Amino acid sequence: MTIAPFSGFDFGDFAERLGPGGYEVVYETDRLQVGIYVLADPEPDRQQPHEWDELYFVLEGSGTLDVEGEKHPLGEGAAAFVAARAAHRFEDYERIVLLVVFDKT
After folding, report:
1. Which of 4, 31, 57, 104 has its C-alpha lying 20 to 30 A from 84's C-alpha?
2. Is 98 left (phi over 0), alpha (psi -120 to 50) or beta?
3. What is the 3-state secondary structure (H, E, C) of the chain?
């Protein structure tokens, strides 16, 4: 697979199109996946543990990330790492827009 040296996208376009609980891949290679995840109350976060390490970046809103029972408040501009196969989910949000980066290696 040939990887382009540059790819651009506007996160706002994706976030506005997605409804509560929506996830859309905005860029992907064999080693990396980048997506936008939108959650809005009262829709719960229904994620299951993933096979890849992941990074969350809060683009808009705030909430609490529960990772295996440990609660981590996150606000706009914050980031969090979650190890592969760790049980996790977002709670205590009205609306939160997340940039999600999976390390597929």
Report:
1. 4
2. beta
3. CCCCCCCCCCHHHHHHHCCCCEEEEEEECCCEEEEEEEEECCCCCCCCCCCCEEEEEEEEECEEEEECCEEEEECCCCEEEECCCCCEEEECCCEEEEEEEEECC
For residue 103, what are the β-bridge partners?
32, 53
Q: Are strands 95-103 and 22-28 parallel, antiparallel or unpaired?
A: unpaired
Tens-place pLDDT, residues 25-64:
988 999 999 999 999 999 999 999 999 999 999 999 999 9
Q: What is the pLDDT of residues 56-103, one digit of tens each?
A: 999 999 999 999 999 999 999 999 999 999 999 999 999 999 999 999
Rounded Cα–Cα distance for residues 97 and 105 (Å): 25
Closest listed residue to residue 102, CA positions, set 49, 57, 55: 55
